Amino acid sequence: MGGTYGGNVVGCAAALATLEVFKDEGIVANAANRGAQMQASLRAMQAEGLAIREVRGAGLMTSVSHEAGVGGAGISGRVTAACHDKGLLLLTTGAPMFESIRFIPPLTVSADEIDEGMSIFRDCLKAEAASTVTLEVGTAAGSSVREKKQGL
User: Fold this and answer.
1) Are 132 and 118 a contacting pair, CB within 8 Å?
2) What are phi and psi of 122, to 5 degrees?
3) Which one, 35, 83, 85, 132, has least CB within 10 Å?
4) Which of 117, 62, 127 has its CA nearest to residue 93?
5) Residue 141: per-residue pLDDT
6) Between these two residues, 146 and 45, which has the higher pLDDT value?
7) Is residue 144 part of a domain?
8) pLDDT given at position 136
């Protein structure tokens, strides 16, 4: 008896073999350790004052969010594009209020690869901050308004 969801013998054998590899190679522990490493690095960037509102995630599925007013609208797309140019592939998501960048590396990622990815991300965030200049503009009432301008 078989079917797509019938639990056939070949499918069950493949699933058991996969679970055995996960156990033998410490895949789950690696995902937990590399996820903690990545989140610690992202929180350090947040503490440095880079444009990160929040770091969240479970294991290797991690994201950072930005407020649209911090770094300007579209910051996630600009940072993700800059990371792509340096070989780091990330995913964006977001609403008008908050923009997010998702990190989803492979379960077998190494500590050195996490360090390399975080270095690229940090460099791109810093470059984005350097390209966003805050100007003070006088108003008719004598008060000032702060504006962020890209690419000045």
Assistant:
1) no
2) -60, -45
3) 85
4) 62
5) 55
6) 45
7) yes
8) 43
Q: Alpha helices, DSSP H only, in the chain? A: 9-24, 27-47, 75-85, 111-131
Number of structural domains (the chain) is 1
3-state secondary structure of 69: coil
For residue 150, list its beta bridge partners.
132
pLDDT at 115 over 80: yes
CB of 114 within 8 A of CB of 105?
yes
Q: What backbone phi and psi angles, to 5 degrees, belong to 65? A: -120, 155
Q: Whose structure tokens read 């994201």? A: 63
| Two structure tokens written together for 151 | 């690419």
Distance (Å, whole) CA 42 – CA 39: 5
Give the Cα separation of 128 and 2 in Å (integer).
55
Q: Which amino acid is at 63?
A: S
Average pLDDT, the chain: 83
pLDDT of res. 74: 82
Query: Tell me: the pLDDT tens digits for 70-99?
Result: 666 788 889 999 999 999 999 988 765 668
Please report, for the domain that includes residue 128, its CATH number: 3.90.1150.10
Interacting residues of 122 by C-beta distance below 8 A, sequence separation 6+: 41, 45, 50
The Cα 35–Cα 57 span in angstroms is 8
